[in-house]
Specification:
The protein has ten helices and no strands. It has 204 residues and is an all-alpha fold. It is globular.
Length: 204
Amino acid sequence: MPDPISWSFVWPYYLAALAFGYLLGSIPFGVILTRLAGLGDIRAIGSGNIGATNVLRTGRKGLALATVLGDGLKGTAAVTVAALYGPETAVIAGLGAFLGHLFPVWLKFRGGKGVATYIGILLGLHWPAVLVFAAVWILVAYITRYSSLAALLATLATPAVLWSFDRIQLMQLFVVLTVLVWIRHSGNIAKLIAGKERRIGRQA
């Protein structure tokens, strides 16, 4: 815990990092890209989510890929810029970016589920952990054909991976992010339990 003098010096930087991350993370690429493509409001189709999975339901794979990249790289950009002012600032910016994606002020705080942004933040803070995330996702997706389950288990593994690398501060951040991802996927979890979740490659 910093002493009062040092805290009074650093807290404006922390607050600025949180705000910067939030504003960057709140850019709704799914909404912007589908509107630019003349497809209307992505929130009016499918699940109503602004993420790449719902964008893919428009049949435009390129737009879905662009949404994944945009949602991921805004997290990477937030932590990379904030890291210029210190590792703690980067962590706070990462949290801000994630909250911005989940609860964007521009969309009345109704955002996405956060997996792409989660990966982007992880990429910017400790890229080797992304390789483990990808390996877990691919393995689970190959065995079960459930994209949501693959993402959930990959996020569950991430804090343990960061702990194994002795990145305790990052582990603490990703425990919080993982909890938020699971909360946002509560509907998917209910469908998985009921056996009603859509499998990869199936349209219905």
